[in-house]
Structures are given as C-alpha cells and as structure tokens.
Design goal:
105 residues, six-stranded antiparallel beta sheet, two-stranded antiparallel sheet, 8 strands, globular, Type_II_PanK, ATP binding
Length: 105
Amino acid sequence: MVDHVPAPVRTRDHPSAEVSCAMPWFGMDIGGTLTKLVYFEPKDITPGELDQEARILRNIRRYLTKNSAYGKTGHRDSHLQMDDVVIRGRRGSLHFIRFPTSEML
C-alpha cells in the first residue's frame, strides 16, 4: 500500500524543522510564445479521498483528461502523456496542455 503523506520539506529558515507540503497537481510555464500546463492526475485515489473530493474538482479533472482541445487554441498533447508516474509517493498520469501565450486573458 502506498503512503499518501506528502514528503517532508526542510525550509531555509528552519533547516531542522520538517514541513509537510501540499501535492502540486498543476505546473505552468508561461513563455513568450507558448504557455504550457502539466496536470498530475492521481490514479491511486483512496475511498476517503474520493469522498472528500469536491464536485468541482472532479469536473476539472474530467474536463482536463477527457478533452484534447480547449477553446480555439488550447491542445492536450496526448502523445506526450506519461502514465504510471510516481510523484511524492503518489502514482498517476501526467497530461500536457499548451496554448499561445497571446491567448491568455
């Protein structure tokens, strides 16, 4: 069984203290031409997490993982998808989405 406790992190101000960080589900790189978004979709969701997950978060997950186009310019690069990835003890898939930076509002 996988332990779902976030990995402890030491801070510069308190190097001997361990702080638990939240799981980073999204990453973003805003470049001059393209904006890239990576989304980590956990596959090892426990029943307790499923009960706690809000409806809005389930809708976001469904929207991001079931579509390959977003609006007129956003695209999910499904050929870059990475499955069975482990990040901080969580197993899931990485999804990559890109769109022109000029289209950001």
